[in-house]
Each structure stands twice: as C-alpha cells, then as structure tokens.
Amino acid sequence: MTAARHKGLAGLILLLLLVLAAAALVAGWWGWQRYSAFADAPLDGLGDGAAVMVERGDSLPIVVRKLREAGVDAGDDLEWRLLARQLGADSRLHVGEYALPQGITPRELLGAMGRGDTVRHRFTIIEGWNIRELRAALGRADALEKKASELDDEALMAALGRAGEHPEGRFLPETYVFTRGDSDLDVLGRAATALDQALAAAWEARGPDTPLQSPYEMLVLASIVEKETAVPAERPQVAGLFERRLRIGMRLQTDPTVIYGIGADYDGNIRRSHLATDTPYNTYTRDGLPPTPIAMPSRASLDAVASPADGTALYFVALGDGSGRHLFADTYAEHQANVRRYLRNYREYVRGLEAGEK
C-alpha cells in the first residue's frame, strides 16, 4: 500500500472518529438535557393534598410505582435511579409520608426522602375536653393508627403503662405533632407525660397554705376551674374561691361536677332535680372534691390552683352578658343580688340576640 493510500485511510479513520465523538457528544448532551429536564421539571398528575407513603422495605422502583398508581406521570425508572445516585438517596429512603404539592420536582422529592422530611400532622387536645370527647376526636384523626378505640378505659391506661389510673384529666391540652403510622396510643402517651410534668411543676409551686393534700387533688380542682370559666384572668379568682370553701368545710356546689356525674345523658340543661340527685360527683350533696377530675385541665388552670388569687369571696355567678365573666360576692346576700343582676343581664342578652336575628 502506497504512502498516499495510508494517509488517505488514516484521514478517513480520523474523520470517522471525529464523527463518532461528535455523535457521542450530541447524544450525551441530549441525554443530559433530557435528564435535567426530568430532574427539575414539576411532576404532572398531582392532585390537591397528594402524598406518597414510603414503607419499611420499599425500594426506589416500588416508590416510583406508587407514584404512578397515584396518577403521577413519573417518567423513566432509569432517570429516577440516576437522580437517586446523584443525590445519594438510592440506598437511604426514609420511611414516612411525603407531601406531593403542586410544582414539586423529582429532585425535590428524592431530596426530601433522603433527608426524611416527612409530613407532620397535628392533633390538638382542647382545654376542658373530657375523656369521651378526647376519644371521639382521636377516632376522627385519619392519619393516626387506631388502637385506643379497641380498649376500654381500664385497658387503655394499662396499655399506656398506667394501670389502675383513671383516664380523666390525665392528658395535657396541647397540640401534638406526629407522622402517619403513629398510633393514638403514641399521642396519648406523650400527652400523659406532658400532664405529669405540668402537674409536678404546679405542685412544686403551690402555696404553703393550700388545703390540697396531694398532686391528684390539685389535678381534680384544676379540672373544675377549667370548666367553670373560660376567662383566663378569672382562673386564679375561681381557684381561690374554691380553696377558701375547702378550707372552711363549705361544699363546692359547682354545676360542672354535677353535669359530669350525669354523663352522656346530659342534654344541655341542668335542672333542680339534677342538683338534688346524689352521685359521687354531685358537689351539692357531697363534701370536698369529687373522686376524679372532670375534664382535661390546661397549664393555666393548674397554675391558677397552685397560685390562687387572694380575696374573701365565697360565691360567684355568671354575669349573663355573653362575655363568660362572673360576679363574685363575699356573702350570700350579695350573691343573691348578683343572681338578680345575672337574670336581668341574661334577659337583655337574649333580647339582643333575638333582635339581631330579625
């Protein structure tokens, strides 16, 4: 073969290599563009409130399949694997529920799964709820696994490691954050621990002249204060009044305890017959505190019982104007005058409501 032919062949080979290299560059550029478009483009097919659950043992292909089953246009499995490898998330997808808001990209979703940025749900125990109301609210919390509903009160407390305790008043009213897969027992366990801590702090801060003999008595009285007034500034006044009654041996005579004793049969109206019917919770017919709390007391009510307001009042009645405030009196005669004032205020309040409806 002549030198010219060798040179021509070498040139042809070089040209071919250049063409192949260019083709490889174009293919690589196209592949990178496609990969980048996949990684940073919003996922299609997301509905409002969409989420995906990564369960223990789920691999990336299983998660991608779950996305498709949820109606998401999830792209190609290879692209997901390449992206997961790039983010270091291919071998450490955290278990949990992940939100799929409108506009989320595969990069953002895998980043969240790699970090464990799961959806945080909230459950709020309302101040003054009783155990029946708390159980009903837990039953409506869709993201919680239901275990407590299968247990009666005795078994519930045993499951929480509190065998023999009455459940009323034992769970602190606050908002608790949880993730899907947690159970109602998990939330109740945290709420019970929070109540223990709040009660211990309140008991430690109690005054030296308190008539209360134990933290449990403080819990019972705080639950009564919780139900008697929704006005924060009045809680120490109400607590002081009840503690004065306990100190002199005067019956508490508080309607919320009677209502609690009626139980599920209470229809919203308390009658004279209810006040005269003896139950363990009727503080009109029995001395001292009822046997258990009647509701879930807030930190504010616990603190009010620990540090009640000074004063001499022994009686109180609602103001009757819809504000939730009360009138306080030292003597029964003053109290009777306040009752008459309450009746006048209440009639005016009702007339105002009726006029507004018209």
Would you mind describing this structure in some detail?
The chain is mainly α and 358 residues long. It has three domains: 40-118, 2-Layer Sandwich (Dna Ligase, domain 1); 121-198, no CATH class; 208-357, no CATH class. It contains 13 helices and six strands. The strands form three sheets. The protein has a two-stranded antiparallel ribbon. A hairpin with a 7-residue loop joins β5 and β6. The longest helix has 38 residues, at 3-40. The termini are far apart.
Features:
two-stranded antiparallel ribbon, single chain, mainly alpha, elongated, Dna Ligase, domain 1, 6 strands, 358 residues
Give the number of DSSP strands.
6
Oligomerization state: single chain
* Dominant shape: elongated
Q: What structural category arises from helix and sheet content?
A: mainly alpha
Question: Could you write a compact summary of the structure shown?
Answer:
This protein is mainly alpha-helical and 358 residues long. It folds into three domains: 40-118, Dna Ligase, domain 1 (2-Layer Sandwich); 121-198, no CATH class; 208-357, no CATH class. The protein contains 13 helices and six strands.
